[in-house]
Amino acid sequence: MSSTLVVHHLRVSQSETIVWLCEELGVAYDLKCYDREQTLLAPEVYKALSPLKTAPVIEDVDTYQPNPEHIKLAESQACVEWISRKYGQGRLINKPWDAHWKEWLFWWHFTHGSLQPALQMKLLTAALPKDHPGAKVADSRIEHYLQLIDERLGKSQYLVGDEFTAADLIMVFPLTTMRAFIPMDLSAYSNILRYLKEIGERPAYQRTFEKAETKLKPMLDANPPSLFSM
């Protein structure tokens, strides 16, 4: 297909979220996939797409301005908002007048503001002894955050009531694919496991892996997957 929207997907990365969003919204997009190098880092051609040198990256035409211009945009939440507002009439992005606005706002920012930094701390302290203060802080935060998520999902089907939103889109990557880099056992969190099972049944999620991750199975089980390697 031909579209002004291009999704640059680094395989086994959170740019899977952007592909998934497009599939959920039924948005036309061109998909360009990139493999990681032996170092597990993004290849130079991908790093050159954005000053951040990380995934995701999208390209599009900014038609909001009097003189439309070609743009590149990074950061997961920024990409989600751009695509949702431009192509999806704001779907999956809750509004201040929606019933669960306050809850949505919290969970929309929770993943990248709390959970993912804790997982990155775990990755950085992985070589340290388990009783090292830094390692203990990372483990404690992750356990606490998983309990919060599990408790929330014990009250509703999704993070924000019984309606799938962008907060769920952002949450799923650290609970699934990111575990290929940071082993995380979810056996103690029955509500999270129920949630991931239902996510895995969504046709748009399945299409995401069919198109963007042909060699990777969705990591929806309780047991941590094998560590990713090239």
UniProtKB/TrEMBL annotation:
The keyword Metal-binding belongs to this UniProt entry's keyword annotation: no
Q: Which Pfam families match?
A: GST_C, GST_N_2
Enumerate the spans annotated as GST C-terminal domain.
97-219
Q: Name one GO molecular function term.
A: transferase activity
Keywords of this entry? Transferase
What InterPro entries does the record tag this protein with?
Glutathione-S-Trfase_C-like (IPR010987), Glutathione-S-Trfase_C_sf (IPR036282), Glutathione_S-Trfase (IPR040079), Glutathione_S-Trfase_N (IPR004045), GST_C (IPR004046), Thioredoxin-like_sf (IPR036249)
Domain named GST N-terminal is located at 2-91
Family named by the database record? Belongs to the GST superfamily.
Q: Which PANTHER family match?
A: GLUTATHIONE S-TRANSFERASE 1, GLUTATHIONE S-TRANSFERASE-RELATED
Q: What is this protein called?
A: Glutathione S-transferase-like protein
Which organism encodes this protein?
Aureobasidium pullulans (Black yeast)
